[in-house]
């Protein structure tokens, strides 16, 4: 029964690093299969799942631009192409166990995948298909975390579930400090003021105050405020973010069903 779950539509962010697992190869098929299985269990419950994949396991634009002399934009385009490889791998894995899946890319590669079309993505979700968003935002100088926040807002998903290799957000690096404490609830204010590394700032800001662009573009600030006071438009809404460990079996399904795992950031 879909009503009994906390979220109806979720945006799952899977980083490239997570896909690599502990393999020497770029992608560990055990990891993609584990993700596919958990996504399958929740789609059967009627929860709609969209996924943004990263590409850091194959190519990270910022590091290459630094060490190779490549200009940043070219390096970032290669990084975005890397996310498409991950997306197709994940799609093929999901379809191998019978989950209907569509890949949509932020720039056209129409022989390989659909172009990103918001309404079409939403329609796929309504039909119970998993939609994988690839190629990030389509723009250099951004990250797939920002793409996750952006797509989440666009398709009206209720939460960004950020699957990582740690249990959530800590007050210090748990790999270096054994006394680091897991923070279970955080506000965006705390994330930004304490400079906690959850997502990059662009992504956090997008999550924190997501203006409705159609209104913002057309109206002056005061008009927006007046409309907001009248309750005609929401000036900002908050996207909740859950950060959790994907390498623990069952965690993805738990996070998607809205059970407590990792750190919840909101408000
Ligand atoms: N990238 C980009 N624009 C985007 C998203 C990604 O240019 O909107 C590039 C960037 O070079 C980045 C690479 O794609 O380093 C892989 O994405 P990301 O580092 O976010 O992947 P993750 O850390 O999740 O594996």
Automatic annotation (TrEMBL):
The keyword Iron-sulfur does not apply. One of its GO terms (biological process) is UDP biosynthetic process. Keywords: ATP-binding, Kinase, Membrane, Nucleotide-binding, Pyrimidine biosynthesis, Transferase, Transmembrane, Transmembrane helix. Coiled coil: none annotated. GO terms for cellular component: cytoplasm. The chain crosses the membrane at residues 230-247. GO terms for molecular function: ATP binding; UMP kinase activity. Residues 9-215 form the Aspartate/glutamate/uridylate kinase domain. Its EC number is 2.7.4.22. Pathway: Pyrimidine metabolism; CTP biosynthesis via de novo pathway; UDP from UMP (UMPK route): step 1/1. Belongs to the UMP kinase family. This is UMP kinase. It comes from Populus tomentosa. The chain holds residues 82 to 348 of 357 of the full protein.
């Amino acid at each position: 029964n879909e009503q009994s779950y906390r979220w109806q539509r979720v945006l799952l962010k899977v980083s490239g690093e997570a896909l690599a697992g502990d393999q020497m190869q770029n992608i560990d098929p055990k990891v993609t299969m584990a993700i596919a299985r958990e996504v399958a269990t929740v789609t059967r419950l009627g929860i709609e799942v969209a996924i943004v994949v990263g590409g850091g396991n194959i190519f990270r634009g910022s590091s290459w631009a630094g060490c190779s002399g490549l200009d940043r934009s070219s390096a970032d385009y290669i990084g975005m192409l890397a996310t498409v490889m991950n997306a197709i791998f994940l799609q093929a894995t999901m379809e191998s166990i019978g989950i209907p899946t569509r890949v949509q890319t932020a720039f056209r590669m129409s022989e390989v995948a659909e172009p990103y079309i918001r309404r079409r993505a939403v329609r796929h979700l309504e039909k119970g298909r998993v939609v994988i968003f690839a190629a990030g935002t389509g723009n250099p100088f951004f990250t797939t975390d920002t793409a996750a926040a952006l797509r989440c807002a666009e398709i009206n998903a209720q939460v960004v579930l950020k699957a990582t290799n740690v249990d959530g957000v800590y007050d210090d690096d748990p790999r270096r400090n054994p006394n680091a404490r897991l923070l279970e609830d955080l506000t965006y204010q705390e994330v930004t003021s304490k400079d906690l590394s959850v997502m990059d700032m662009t992504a956090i800001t997008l999550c924190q105050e997501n203006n409705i662009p159609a209104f913002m573009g057309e109206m002056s600030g005061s008009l927006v405020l007046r409309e907001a006071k009248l309750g005609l438009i929401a000036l900002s809404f908050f996207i909740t973010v859950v950060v959790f460990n994907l390498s623990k079996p069952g965690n993805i399904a738990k996070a998607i069903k809205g059970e407590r795992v990792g750190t919840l950031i909101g408000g």
